[in-house]
Write a structure and sequence with these properties.
With about 130 residues, the protein is mainly beta. The chain contains 1 helix and 13 strands. The chain has a 6-stranded antiparallel β-sheet, with no helix packed on it. Strands 4-3-5-6-9 form a 5-stranded mixed β-sheet, with no helix packed on it. Strand 7 (about 70-75) and strand 8 form a beta hairpin. The longest helix is centred in the C-terminal third of the chain and has 8 residues, at about 105-110. The relative contact order is 0.16.
Length: about 130
């Protein structure tokens, strides 16, 4: 699962999992990430799940600046809209976030595994066996 990690001086302050198709960032109370910072616009930026597969796996996230006063930056470059890559640094106002998105196929496959419970010949004793669903 993708997430934004709020960082300060190399330390993690907060983590924000991206669990919806849109993650709104700004100073207003109706945002998903509310930043109490006068350099942040009320509705500053939004991250969207841009490419989703049939099984619900998000292949691409995009960030868009919402015409904010002080702009949105990714890796110290001003953006209007851009695809996010794993470990990109997003700056909104005075806040810095690391975009954490592990795209490794083996991690995805791990979530697709289900452990099957089997009954043994001994009454009340069960054992497990891994299968893919």
């Amino acid at each position: 699962m993708a997430k934004l990690i709020k960082m300060q001086n190399g330390e993690v302050l907060e983590e924000y999992p991206i669990t919806k198709s849109e993650l709104k960032i700004g100073r207003a109370l109706d945002n998903d990430i509310i930043l109490h910072d006068e350099t942040v616009s009320s509705h500053h930026a939004v991250i969207t799940a841009a490419t989703v597969t049939d099984d619900g796996f998000v292949k691409e996230y995009r960030i868009q600046d919402l015409q904010s006063t002080n702009k949105t930056f990714v890796n110290n470059k001003e953006i209007t809209e851009r695809k996010l890559q794993d470990k990109d640094i997003v700056r909104v106002g005075l806040s810095h976030f690391e975009f954490d998105y592990n795209t490794h196929e083996d991690i995805r496959k791990e979530f697709q595994k289900t452990t099957k419970l089997h009954k043994s010949w001994i009454p009340g004793v069960f054992y497990t066996k891994e299968t893919k669903n």
